[in-house]
Amino acid sequence: MTDPNATPPLTVSRHELLVAGSDQTFREFIHGFLAFTSLVESIRDKFGELLGLSGAQYELFITIRHRQGDEGISVSHVAQHLYVSGAFVTMETRKLVKLGLVEKRPNPEDGRSVLLRVTPKGDQMLEDLAVVQRPINDTLFECLDSDEFRLIAARMGCLIRSGQRAQKQMAYLSQLEETTDLFDYS
Amino acid sequence: MTDPNATPPLTVSRHELLVAGSDQTFREFIHGFLAFTSLVESIRDKFGELLGLSGAQYELFITIRHRQGDEGISVSHVAQHLYVSGAFVTMETRKLVKLGLVEKRPNPEDGRSVLLRVTPKGDQMLEDLAVVQRPINDTLFECLDSDEFRLIAARMGCLIRSGQRAQKQMAYLSQLEETTDLFDYS
DNA sequence: TGACTTAGCTAACAAACTTAGGTATTGTCG
DNA sequence: CGACAATACCTAAGTTTGTTAGCTAAGTCA
User: Fold this and answer.
1) A128 by DSSP, 3-state: which?
2) Stated in angstroms, how far is A88 CA from C19 C1'?
3) Which nucleotide is nearest to A86 (CA to C1')?
4) Which nucleotide lies closest to A111 by the C1' atom and the CA atom?
5) A11: which chain B residues are within 8 Å (Cβ-Cβ)?
6) How does DSSP classify residue B71?
7) pLDDT under 50: residue ranges of chain B
8) What's the pTM?
9) CA dist B50 to A22, A37, B45, B58, Å?
10) How far is the alpha carbon of A16 from chain B, nearest alpha carbon, in Å?
């Protein structure tokens, strides 16, 4: 028999993430974070729509521009940054190339590799879009003052690295599960 | 002819979000935020997998528990919180009901409405899962100290409200576009 | 009562991916 | 050098994750 008054077990243990010994704040924070994420994604879909792109295509597009450097970025590197399969990048990139927004050229240093770069037309489209993005982004982060924004921006790199560690840790744990069947509720 | 040395237009204008008059930090922040979001989502998919659920089902599942209160939550309210269609909630909920994790009962106060609630079996599964979540969540937010965590957690509500405003603003602007064809690059 | 709106369901479809399997190229090691 | 594994990309087929359209039942309100 489960005690209906039992406190559910904590979903975090670091004392920095507990408030009065409870993970309630953390749980609220996670749900809030996910809700905010949905909102940001729906807005990004609209940005893409203005350019005639799907949300995924738009994300691919701005990722290429952000990472292209002087020479361009390879398909596999884009896939790594977006955490999607290379095959998906190949397929969606083809559409961007067809639209004249991205160009592909062979990597002179590696015959297997292809370098992706945003075309001048693509750059122009993104510059035009900024007119729309500006007021939306201003609204989106209205809550943050200068110090708060800088703090969070400065933490992003660390958060991504810790996220990658957590992801690996999770992969290990879930592979462990496979062999022990701890969660077999069938 | 486009001047290759021209600075791209700003994607934000609030001075709080600009660093030395540039939106470079903001752009990095957005890309970092999206990358972090992908990592969190991939981890959540794994949590779901341990319970035999897809990522979307798991998200639905924990959202029902989070919002059910004493009486349960309606299909349409869940859909609103997750920003998905009611039809999708109906379909995925059916699977959770079949697995015995969620129960549906008619809303005594409204014959059209159905109330969703996590069953004791479902609660037990989520409690067992906490053992795995704890170390992963600890790793995921290693970068944040107590003050930073509390600050960000305290800002979530405001961020969601501003996100909703931005979403409406965006819907308005994009509907405006439809009639003016400002972004017709065809 | 009649006209409209809302809640939920089903079915058909579209979008956003993945996996499997192929080819060409490169790196490595006896 | 030659064999062989690994890497980069591509294509095709399938899966997951949603959506829209249209229906029924129930509530709202003049």
Assistant:
1) helix
2) 11
3) D9
4) C25
5) 130, 133-134, 137
6) T
7) 1-2
8) 0.92
9) 25, 23, 9, 10
10) 4
Task: Report residue B115 as tokens.
Answer: 């109330």
Q: How far is the CA of B73 from the C1' of C4 (A)?
A: 26
d(CA B150, CA A73): 38
Q: Taking all residues of chain A, what is their mean pLDDT, rounded to a whole number? A: 92
pLDDT of residue A4: 52
Query: CA-CA distance, A107 to A92, in Å (whole number)?
Result: 20
A132, A145, A150, best to mutate vs chain B, most B CBs in 10 Å: A132
Residue A107: pLDDT band with limits 50, 70, 90: very high
**Rounded distance, CA B37 to CA A56, Å?**
14
Whether residue A143 contacts residue B158, with contact meaning beta carbons closer than 8 Å, is answered with: yes
* C-alpha neighbours within 13 Å on the C-beta side of residue A50: 25
pLDDT in the model for residue B2: 47
Mind telling me how many Å the CA of B146 is from chain A's nearest CA? 4
- CB of residue A75 closer than 7 A to nucleic acid strand D? yes
| pLDDT given at position B7 | 74
Mean pLDDT computed over A18-23: 95
CB contact under 8 A, A38 and B142: no
The per-residue pLDDT for A176 is 79
Per the model's pLDDT, the better-predicted residue between A26 and B175 turns out to be A26
Task: Tell me, rounded to whole angstroms, the distance of Cα A107 from its chain centroid.
Answer: 27
pLDDT digits (tens, 9 = 90+) for B93-130: 999 999 999 999 999 999 999 999 999 999 999 999 99
At B22, which amino acid appears?
A: S
